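Example 5.3 — Filamin-A isoform X4
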Amino acid sequence: MYRWAEPEEAPPATWLDVSDFYRATLKSVTISEVDGEVRAIYYGSVPSTVAKECLLLTPDNFGHAFEGLIFLTQYYFNTRKAEVKMPSGNVDKPVIEDNRDGTVCVKYEPREEGLHELAVKYNGEHVQGSPFKFHVDSLSSGYVTAYGPGLTHGVCGEPGNFTISTKGSGAGGLSMAVEGPSKAEISCHDNKDGTVSVSYLPTAPGEYKITVKFGDKHIKGSPYNAKITGEGRKRNQISVGSCSEVSLPGKVSEQDIRSLNASIQAPSGLEEPCFLKKLPNNNLGISFTPREVGEHVVSVKRMGKHITNSPFKITVADKEVGDAKKVKVTGNALKDGKTHVDNTFTVDTRNAGYGGLSLSIEGPSKAEIQCQDKEDGTLNISYKPTEPGYYIVNLKFADHHVEGSPFTVKVQGEGSNRQREKIQRQREAVPITEVGSECKLTFKMPGVTSLDLSSTVTSPGGVTEDAEINEVEDGLYAVHFVPKELGVHTVSVRYKEMHIPGSPFQFTVGPLRDGGAHRVHAGGPGLERGEAGQPTEFNVWTREAGAGSLAISVEGPSKAEIDFKDRKDGSCYVSYRVGDPGEYRVGIKFNDQHIPDSPYKVYISPAMGDAHKLEVAQFPTDVQVDKPAQFLVHKNGAKGELDAKIVSPGGSEDDCFIQLIDQDTYSVRFMPRENGVNSIHSKFNGVHIPGSPFRIKVGKEDADPAAVHAVGNGLGEVKTGHKTDFIVDTCAAGAGTLAVTIDGPSKVSMDCTEVEEGYKVRYTPLVPGDYYISVKYNSYHIVGSPFKVTCTGEDLAERGAQESSSVVVETVHKVSKSRVQGPTLPHFKSDASKVTCKGMGLKKAYLQKQNQFTVHAGDAGNNILYVGMYGPKGPCEECFIKHMGRNNYQVNYVVRERGDYIVLVKWGDEHIPGSPFKVDV
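Solution (predicted structure tokens):
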């Protein structure tokens, strides 16, 4: 409840006070701190029915009805655009007024009832939260309505808020009730304007029923169901394929199936990729999930051209279309469960047609899921939670919830006594980097020598240069480079020729293109392993994400002490220490969203004991696939047993052969099965020895994730039901493992085919929302990954929790046609007119002596310097060009004949000012 005191009794309201009013009234307002000033950004649903005038928040009119949108910014809108999409689909233009005080007023008088969308754009980009949704009701409708996030979702331990509007509804008594897994305290506040603000506090996760009655009758929409989740909830999911296999009409027996790709178009026009496979009769068939009855058209193409008889026509019968309503689910495990045991239920899809089955479980612990397919259309599915509480089980068939889903399951039993510690820090936006300024990227990597570290920077134009790397303080290193153009640069940092965790880095010169959690990256030993009682450390790079709140949590058998060091350059260093060994989860969130690959699973080993005495000797360098290699481990008097295993880039494990060759030395023999970076885990009495796991590069082919690029319409804005694609260019990257994962509000049909410049990934989104596309090469994110893709359009499948679709391809070495004749030059950006030169050697030269001049191209961008000299009897005797650093050159030449000579100096393909020069000898 908010009351304004007289000025002499209380100081004027600060923006923080105002923001509290926003939170209580609008439910969807955040405060972000920029350059020490607080600004409120509106991004929620608009409860107003008619926006007639702009409301400025001052003590005088604070109690007025909310009747406008206010965007509090630190700048005036240079180019601004707003439009309202009406329920009929027509678009209307509201009035925008600049108040010339840092606020903009949007006025709109609705002409239709129903749900409207207001899009507000600044310089062509949606402002935060746009498009906003608001519902318009006629004032004479007499309905009592309720709106607000607390009616649909929330987090336990935090108030769920909503508002009830009784305007124009006459006399009557208002009553409310909240039923659910916990007692929820309700508080109400009459706003004296025909609306009531309601807040309730759920203390346990689960499904809550919210009843709102007016005059003893349920209002429209009551009772409401709100799903309340717990903080830091864990999610696990599995998918079981159930696709229809259809043989293509006629005799289609293409041999090279990998060079073909196929898509299927349903009668409604929905087109999506489908998979080709060889059927037992050697004919070619397709595997797809039927969504509609009727005639479908299948296109099979090679390099974009139809094969013989393509497109094919296939008829889908009624009984083949997947129908989630016909799936039968039995078992008490979807109501009640127990911790540390398998809770089993049965799913019967025999009468439901073809469709993929997906199951996700979200709750206080990541429940282990097992699926037993009886191969008769029925499955036994079990889950094993480790913590008691309420779990939400989503069960979908053919992209639709089965009857009763999502299920709320009450799990009882003993927990695993996991303890959680969390710290939160505000991250400021790093100042924009300009062309020509010194750029710095820092990381901490204790226990290495700077001689083994190397770094390169690739500009947006494709020019790669070595970067300077130096040790700032013990274990802290900095990469220095001076950019020559705007855009996204790729910074690669390697230790012993292998990318360090987090590399390759994205480094934007100029304004950031997009920010948020998907632009935060983390890496370091503390996200892989640790030792009880010892500090465990890792780096977090937030530079590309902009300003925001960074939260680090450590959850496991014992409480963690977390330390945080901000390096003030867009990177920070986190150190944590735990007392007990076991499995821990390290969560990293930015603005309440997990960053890519978070939470990390970290095994903390017992205190090292004698393991720290062991030393590794004769570690191999040139290792090949399927050829044995070995190294020695000296015990140095330690008592115990050594064990070792090798883990391939794909994740498969193989034991190493260990032999005690004398009382104090082990021989460890291993045989790698995959090219790429393998790791050897060596443990003594169950504890990693110093340096373990050891990373080792296998094979000559160096698959470089820094050289992989992704481009295409499928990485921009996409529409539901429309097939879209993007190309992953691997031409300069060598052979490796390409893994593409798409996370979003629905599963997507997805395939990957080989094209000339790399691999084309095609997918069809079915539900609007934000999708995140991760592209990894040999387990490293490429620059720009994960890509945030916004999808618009109609719902073509049921929306559920975040779904994940992925495809993995073992790539081959690709060479584009332009490179077949030899290497191609990078795309240079340079200006020859900015090159200067000076020296006597440009005017007069002497026989048999070293004549000299200098060329300065520091401001001319990147290119190649060409110098040539031609005299009365042909070229001069000798000519040397020496690069002195920073695009400064020294040119020496010797002539043996008298006469007039011409000196040509070119920067790339263009003559520099004054060239060609006439030289008298």
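Remark. The helical segments are 15-26.
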